[in-house]
Amino acid sequence: MITSKAGIELIRRYESCKLVAYPDPKTGGAPWTVGWGATGPDIHEGTVWTQQQADDRLQADIAEREDMVSDAVTVPLTQGQFDAMVSIVFNVGQGSSKKDGIIRLKDGRPSTLLRLLNAGDYAGCADQFLRWVSPGSNVERGLRRRRTEEREMFLTGSP
Predict the structure, then answer these.
(1) Which of 61, 85, 106, 157 is the most buried (most CB within 10 A)?
(2) CB burial class (10 A; 0-12, 13-18, 19+) of residue 52?
(3) Sign of the torsion angle spanned by Cα atoms 123, 153, 73, 91
């Protein structure tokens, strides 16, 4: 599957586009971010992109998340469910040995959201979206709005 126009618009609505790289608000430095939330070794202080570069990278980053979701999910998905999963993986990340994510937790297990989904518990999975909001942080309100829209898209096909 590929992300629909509605899914891409959901991601764009919550990932502001900045053409000049800015530092991570927690560290005041790395990782630097530019475009629609792009990070990586090629992005550092002083990086400046055109709108076309930002849009091209967004498409590549979405395609990468689509592959992650397709590889991790073992049950059939509707377009809205797929779009919601790509959006949350785009924002939270897949996870690693250092950071919990939607595909894997630090301890190597899949997140509860993914375990419920792969068990066919679509309603239970949908409710897990609301748990990924960074309680007490300065971004909690925005994440609650995003997770609510992602959950709605997962359940109904539209945010």
Answers:
(1) 85
(2) exposed
(3) negative
Q: Quick one: which of 93, 71, 70, 91 has its CA closest to 81? A: 70
Q: Interior CA angle at 78 toward 74 and 79, to 5°?
A: 115
DSSP E strand stretches across 12-126 = 18-22, 33-35
pLDDT tens track for 70-121: 999 999 999 999 999 999 999 999 999 999 999 999 999 999 999 999 999 9
Whole-Å CA distances, 81 to 92, 106, 152: 16, 25, 9
- Cross-strand pairs, 38: 34
Global pTM? Answer: 0.91
pLDDT tens per residue across span 114-156:
999 999 999 999 999 999 997 777 778 889 999 999 999 999 9
Catalytic residue list: 15
Tokens, residue 143 = 């994440």
SS3 content of the chain, % helix, strand, coil (to 5): 50, 5, 45
